[in-house]
């Protein structure tokens, strides 16, 4: 079904750039002369004509403005040199402006599909900056909160035979975040209630069980301890895995509801227990803060769950949502609300000590008297969980801006989502939105000086990211043919800053550009004068998982993508030079950002500079600055990584990391197939990877040569050499452009066909974290070695295809 719809509904149109003229405005006689010349001299087509005669003019340095700059990108018949452009992009972004944009976006609620005035405001700003922008709407299936309740009931025995037992409310959860005098955002009348995206409506009353982080093995531990789960409500901590997967496992085990709370034990050292002052007086977590968020089963497929694989245009057929979103109600709560519920279980059922070490970590409410016994609560102690959600199919809006480049079939897309779970969202996502506006304003300044990019640049302000990457997924699904044909790279920034630590994840094709750009931008931290972002960064680039809008580009369309921003340290959020970030809470507010997150908005401006320069390098260099060797090296590393996993299995050795990871997924059944045969098949993978490395090195070397030639000034009478160079550059660029596509396997991963990339996908059992060779690794984890061998074959095929494409 999805397949037919796919071909029917997909659109070959190019957004905003319907027809693309590489030629200058039509002047009939010139056209005729060229055409005659073409017929006579070359007997070739009009396309060849355009390529042969107009691209040289477009691509290569003109005589008027040449600056000797061997490998750097020369201007292509342009009013600005690359250095001039770079100066504009480094000097235009301003702290005060970023602060102004942040203040605007965080002034009122902007849940997906709920704030059209932010859409038109964004479009108007971009147009003021000189960038043409359109609004693209999709009709998507989402929920909005209507009501909720969480209460603890206790049955009191009647005093005599005729005095009936009575249920008394022992505790009524507020389900509200405190209104703070200092923080205006928290005072808004129309602030967004605490709820979960895609949660099921329901009204359940049942005994409850504390399930630790609610990972697969946490539940298994409970089952082993004979804790009855069926018909009960799960009380889980946030952390470890994506929240939707906690709800999914509870649902699969016959539980009737899920309550998820934030434990301050996961905030590192920055806690009240350690004497740190609470927000707003200090940087520790405000006890009433609640983490909203989506419970969609994201690792199976993002986007509108009723239109998997095709765009949610009005009138399209809708699929049932079973299996894509939960069927039991869930609700997020603060630790203030969790304390009485957990304390009521003290002494009931096993304590964490009777379980493994995974139950004894980060018990941040012990100092408040919580013993973390699992329960279940006796039948006279029950929770009433009410979750009322309104499900609607409603429009949401992406804002799409375009700067036409000289080349229309080479396109750079950059984007950030605009929607937030709360009225604020100063960190997630509007630090990114503020930076994006500064990027666009900077490109606008360049345009006003007569600059025109070599490649087309598309800017996106996505809607509906929070519910399930909806705005970006639907857009990629709609424009898939065009993106497949033309998109060189996608550059995402979600959270631009909530701390001082630079972080990035990327397709290895893009590593080189990132390493270059971080050295060009000054860090806001000038403890050592002149230090750059690169000087303070550990240079770690993680693999692409999911969790933001790059997912459809990277994992579905095979477009090399990158995601970056400044955050707190990964290990202990509050640990190093940062306040605890109130993720998806009312306290992710303008006041928090201005006071703790990024006082002075220096990191906002820094991200704008990095983002603009990164985009400019991709858009302007005559030879696309991707590096295939880096990809080949990374792939070989991933292969070795998986192989050592297999070696360890054969040797019966289990590492600490393996054990930790295994907590997230089902216990493996008896092995199927031979692990030794699987081990042998890695030879084929290594061979293919070695060949890919050779091909990649040759390709990159050729590209480097061409880049150098492109920087030289050829006199006009060497037009033939010029043409040859252009031809070769186009050839090299095409190979770069399509390399990532070679890693797509059209049937998709086992059980989740939407995910087509054989190298990168979100972990099936974590939801966020990036997995490499997901098909293969999941088969090995499941000890299904026959299936793993199948995946070795698929990956090998993709590698050889990539080798062939570089020849
Ligand atoms: C881009 O170019 C096409 C074709 O020349 C034109 O129709 C479109 O309006 C242009 N878009 C922008 C944003 O300039
Ligand atoms: C939309 O956003 C603006 C700016 O943040 C805010 O002032 C306004 O209250 C919001 N509108 C609605 C309907 O929530
Ligand atoms: C939930 O169900 C109970 C028992 O059926 C009922 O008394 C109560 O009014 C319901 N609550 C809501 C909010 O509908
Ligand atoms: C769970 O129940 C089974 C069967 O009733 C029993 O053999 C086992 O010892 C129990 N386990 C625990 C941890 O109580
Ligand atoms: C600021 O820079 C100094 C010197 O490089 C470094 O030691 C320190 O950790 C940095 N601080 C932050 C918060 O990045
Ligand atoms: C590509 O990357 C490899 C390995 O990092 C490096 O040796 C080579 O110089 C790079 N080539 C180009 C053209 O950047
Ligand atoms: Zn976000």
From TrEMBL:
<feature type="domain" description="PA">
    <location>
        <begin position="204"/>
        <end position="281"/>
    </location>
</feature>
<dbReference type="Pfam" id="PF04253">
    <property type="entry name" value="TFR_dimer"/>
</dbReference>
<keyword id="KW-1133">Transmembrane helix</keyword>
<dbReference type="InterPro" id="IPR007365">
    <property type="entry name" value="TFR-like_dimer_dom"/>
</dbReference>
<dbReference type="InterPro" id="IPR003137">
    <property type="entry name" value="PA_domain"/>
</dbReference>
<keyword id="KW-0812">Transmembrane</keyword>
<dbReference type="InterPro" id="IPR036757">
    <property type="entry name" value="TFR-like_dimer_dom_sf"/>
</dbReference>
<dbReference type="InterPro" id="IPR007484">
    <property type="entry name" value="Peptidase_M28"/>
</dbReference>
<keyword id="KW-0378">Hydrolase</keyword>
<feature type="region of interest" description="Disordered">
    <location>
        <begin position="261"/>
        <end position="294"/>
    </location>
</feature>
<feature type="compositionally biased region" description="Acidic residues">
    <location>
        <begin position="264"/>
        <end position="275"/>
    </location>
</feature>
<feature type="domain" description="Peptidase M28">
    <location>
        <begin position="399"/>
        <end position="590"/>
    </location>
</feature>
<dbReference type="InterPro" id="IPR046450">
    <property type="entry name" value="PA_dom_sf"/>
</dbReference>
<feature type="domain" description="Transferrin receptor-like dimerisation">
    <location>
        <begin position="680"/>
        <end position="807"/>
    </location>
</feature>
<protein>
    <submittedName>
        <fullName>Putative glutamate carboxypeptidase</fullName>
    </submittedName>
</protein>
<keyword id="KW-0472">Membrane</keyword>
<keyword id="KW-0121">Carboxypeptidase</keyword>
<dbReference type="InterPro" id="IPR039373">
    <property type="entry name" value="Peptidase_M28B"/>
</dbReference>
<dbReference type="GO" id="GO:0004180">
    <property type="term" value="F:carboxypeptidase activity"/>
</dbReference>
<dbReference type="Pfam" id="PF04389">
    <property type="entry name" value="Peptidase_M28"/>
</dbReference>
<comment type="similarity">
    <text>Belongs to the peptidase M28 family. M28B subfamily.</text>
</comment>
<feature type="transmembrane region" description="Helical">
    <location>
        <begin position="37"/>
        <end position="60"/>
    </location>
</feature>
<dbReference type="Pfam" id="PF02225">
    <property type="entry name" value="PA"/>
</dbReference>
<keyword id="KW-0645">Protease</keyword>
């Amino acid at each position: 079904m999805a397949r037919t719809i796919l071909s029917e509904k997909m659109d070959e149109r190019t957004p905003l750039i319907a027809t693309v003229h590489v030629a200058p405005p039509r002047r009939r006689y010139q056209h005729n002369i060229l055409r005659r010349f073409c017929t006579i001299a070359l007997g070739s087509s009009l396309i060849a004509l355009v390529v042969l005669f107009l691209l040289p003019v477009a691509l290569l340095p003109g005589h008027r403005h040449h600056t000797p700059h061997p490998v750097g990108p020369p201007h292509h018949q342009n009013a600005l040199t690359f250095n001039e452009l770079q100066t504009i992009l480094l000097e235009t972004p301003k702290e005060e402006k970023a602060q102004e944009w942040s203040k605007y976006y965080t002034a009122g609620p902007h849940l997906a599909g709920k704030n059209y005035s932010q859409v038109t405001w964004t479009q108007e700003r971009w147009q003021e900056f000189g960038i043409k922008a359109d609004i693209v709407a999709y009709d998507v299936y989402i929920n909005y909160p209507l009501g909720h309740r969480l209460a603890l009931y206790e049955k009191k025995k009647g005093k005599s035979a005729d005095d009936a037992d009575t249920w008394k409310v022992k505790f009524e959860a507020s389900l509200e975040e405190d209104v703070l005098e200092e923080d205006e955002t928290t005072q808004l009348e129309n602030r967004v209630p605490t709820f979960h995206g895609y949660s099921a409506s329901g009204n359940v009353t049942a005994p409850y069980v504390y399930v630790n982080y609610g990972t697969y093995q946490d539940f298994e531990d409970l089952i082993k301890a004979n804790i009855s789960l069926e018909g009960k409500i799960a009380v889980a901590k946030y952390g470890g895995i994506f929240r939707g997967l906690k709800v999914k496992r509870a649902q699969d085990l016959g539980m009737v509801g899920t309550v998820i709370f934030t434990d301050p034990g996961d905030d590192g050292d920055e806690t009240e227990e350690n004497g740190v002052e609470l927000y707003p007086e200090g940087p520790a977590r405000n006890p009433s803060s609640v983490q909203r968020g989506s419970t969609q089963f994201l690792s199976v497929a993002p986007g509108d769950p009723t239109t998997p694989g095709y765009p949610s245009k009005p009138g399209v057929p809708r699929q049932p949502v079973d299996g894509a979103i939960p069927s039991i109600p869930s609700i997020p709560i603060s630790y203030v609300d969790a304390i009485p519920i957990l304390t009521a279980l003290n002494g009931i059922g096993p304590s964490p000590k009777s379980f493994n070490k995974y139950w004894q970590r980060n018990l941040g409410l012990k100092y408040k008297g919580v013993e973390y016994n699992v329960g279940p609560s006796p039948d006279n102690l029950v929770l009433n969980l009410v979750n009322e959600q309104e499900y609607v199919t409603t429009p949401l809006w992406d804002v799409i801006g375009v700067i036409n480049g000289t080349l229309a079939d080479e396109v750079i897309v950059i984007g950030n989502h605009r929607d937030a779970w709360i009225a604020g969202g100063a960190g997630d996502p509007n630090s990114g939105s503020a930076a994006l506006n500064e990027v666009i304003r900077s490109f606008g300044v360049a345009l006003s000086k007569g600059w025109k990019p070599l490649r087309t640049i598309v800017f996106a302000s996505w809607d509906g990211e929070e519910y399930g990457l909806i705005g970006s997924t639907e857009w990629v699904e709609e424009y898939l043919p065009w993106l497949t044909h033309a998109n060189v790279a996608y550059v995402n920034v979600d959270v631009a800053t909530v701390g001082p630590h630079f972080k990035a994840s990327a397709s290895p094709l893009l590593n080189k550009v990132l390493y270059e750009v971080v050295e060009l931008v000054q860090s806001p931290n000038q403890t050592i004068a002149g230090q750059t972002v690169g000087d303070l960064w550990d240079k770690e680039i993680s693999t692409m998982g999911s969790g933001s809008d790059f997912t459809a580009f990277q994992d579905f369309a095979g477009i090399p993508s990158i995601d970056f921003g400044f955050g707190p340290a990964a290990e202990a959020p509050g640990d190093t030079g940062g306040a605890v970030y109130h993720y998806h809470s009312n306290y992710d507010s303008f006041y928090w950002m201005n006071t703790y997150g990024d006082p002075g908005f220096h990191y906002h401006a820094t991200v704008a500079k990095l983002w603009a320069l990164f985009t400019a390098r991709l858009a302007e260099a005559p030879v696309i600055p991707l590096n295939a060797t880096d990809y080949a090296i990374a792939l070989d590393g991933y292969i070795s990584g998986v192989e050592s996993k297999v070696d360890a299995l054969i040797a019966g050795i289990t590492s600490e990391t393996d054990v930790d990871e295994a907590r997230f997924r089902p216990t493996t059944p008896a092995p199927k197939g031979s692990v030794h045969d699987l081990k042998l098949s890695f030879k084929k993978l290594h061979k293919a990877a070695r060949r890919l490395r050779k091909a990649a090195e040759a390709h990159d070397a050729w590209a480097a040569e061409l880049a150098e030639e492109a920087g030289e000034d050829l006199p006009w009478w060497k037009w033939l050499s010029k043409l040859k160079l252009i031809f070769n550059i186009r050839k090299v660029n095409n190979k770069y452009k399509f390399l990532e596509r070679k890693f797509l396997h059209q049937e998709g991963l086992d059980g989740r066909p939407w995910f087509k990339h054989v190298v990168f996908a979100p972990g099936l059992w974590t939801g966020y974290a990036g997995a490499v060779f997901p098909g293969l690794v999941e088969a090995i984890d499941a000890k299904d070695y026959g299936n793993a061998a199948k995946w070795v074959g698929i990956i090998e095929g993709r590698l050889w295809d990539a080798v062939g494409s570089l020849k």
